[in-house]
Design a protein that fits this description.
Largest sheet: 2 strands, antiparallel
Number of strands: 2
Order of helices and strands: HEEHHHHHHHHHHHHHH
Number of helices: 15
Distance between the termini: 34 Å
Shape: globular
Radius of gyration: 23 Å
């Protein structure tokens, strides 16, 4: 067995992930970028440079509505998952002291991920359907006169995304909160800082790396998810659905151009999150 030593020996552990990233991410991007500038004449792609794919998409009458739907759904999901994830992370960190009970709660939160996505999703029909539990409860209590449409609408998309991605928001925040020195909080309380000021000035601000990481996870995941909107959004068009539709009809240059637009906007948003949230603190500080 060969033993590798030296200053950079530990970096060999990065090699499998690096190779996977290059093959699965970088290489497809290197193909997609030039294809987005190609011409298309059914049924073939013509390797001739053109900006028509980008110009046609950017100045399309539907582009504004599609981008608003795409980033609006993702932004609202990020905000809702933050409200839930922050509250749960705060409770686990500062309100529950019993380590065994805390581990038990975390395990229960992970249980849904042991169930297949399709089963977890279809199960919401019995809750959100016209004859589901929520409509039954609202009608039987007289709050509404008849069933309302909850399935196949943005509401069902939000519910499914929250079920799927809230943990991706909660755990980075929980990790960041666990790194807060309790002496900071005790010192602020001794100095008679109000609970709201302690919450904002110490807990929230020191949790920003975890919050930014959670927002990045949820934002990217929802932005790239076109299956859930296609099944449950009730016909709302998103950028992911547009890309899938063009690619499914073999319009590769147009699909590649739209993918590049999404990638650029996503990278800008992630850069702002990393800059504001200082995610490096969550990774490197111990």
């Amino acid at each position: 067995m060969v033993k590798v030593t030296g200053r950079y020996a530990s970096y060999l552990l990065l090699l499998p992930g690096l190779v996977t990233s290059v093959v699965g991410v970088v290489f497809p991007l290197l193909i997609m970028v030039p294809v987005s500038f190609y011409k298309f004449k059914f049924p073939t792609v013509i390797p001739e440079f053109t900006l028509a794919n980008y110009v046609g998409y950017i100045f399309s009458a539907q582009t504004g509505a599609v981008l608003l739907n795409t980033f609006g759904l993702s932004a609202i999901t990020c905000s809702l998952s933050f409200l839930i994830g922050y509250a749960v992370a705060y409770t686990l960190t500062f309100k529950i002291q019993n380590a065994v009970f805390k581990t038990y709660i975390i395990s229960l939160l992970l249980v849904p991920f042991l169930i297949d996505w399709s089963i977890r999703t279809v199960a919401w029909i019995s809750v959100l359907g016209e004859n589901g539990f929520i409509n039954y409860l609202l009608v039987s209590t007289g709050i509404i006169a008849g069933p309302i449409r909850l399935l196949f609408s943005p509401i069902s998309v939000f519910v499914i995304w929250l079920q799927t991605y809230t943990l991706f928001m909660m755990f980075p925040i929980y990790l960041a909160m666990n790194r807060i020195d309790p002496d900071y909080i005790r010192a602020a309380q001794v100095l008679r800082a109000s609970p709201s000021r302690v919450q904002y000035e110490i807990i929230f601000k020191l949790s920003r790396p975890g919050i930014a990481t959670g927002f990045a996870f949820v934002f990217v995941s929802t932005l790239g998810d076109y299956v859930t909107p296609s099944l449950w959004a009730g016909g709302i068009q998103t950028l992911g659905l547009s890309i899938a539709s063009y690619a499914g009809n073999y319009l590769w240059p147009q699909a590649a151009a739209m993918s590049m637009v999404m990638l650029i906007i996503t990278l800008v948003a992630l850069y702002l999150l990393v800059t504001v949230g200082n995610i490096k603190k969550l990774i490197y500080e111990r």
